[in-house]
What does this fold into?
Amino acid sequence: MNDITVAVADAASLSRLGRVLGEAGVSLEGGGLWAGVAHYLVADGEAARRALRGAGITDVDVREAVVVPLDADVPGALGRMMDRLAAAGVTLIAQYTDHDNRKVLVVDDPPAAREALA
It folds into this structure.
């Protein structure tokens, strides 16, 4: 799975992003928009990048995402997960939840994150 990151100025920009990806058959599996930056989980990051670039949206970042289960109903679960990443020296770039209630982590070192969370 991949995280795509795109600067989004307004609702019309986000609408265009969703429309372009939908027409290309790229499904958004989770994500959202924070402070003008959209992060979305997609199965094929390169397909998303090609579709967006083809539509003139050129500032697209694609990163490997680490997708892991999170016991969302257990108090402190997120804190314990972040403690393990921090202890492993993994830098967190973004985090959100996907449509299957899993935690999506965008990090500087995906293999180290997977090892820390195993």
Observations:
- The first helix runs from residue 11 to 23.
- Residues 2-63 form a domain with the VC0802-like fold (CATH 3.30.2130.10).
- Residues 30 and 98 are 4 Å apart (CA to CA).
- The radius of gyration is 15 Å.
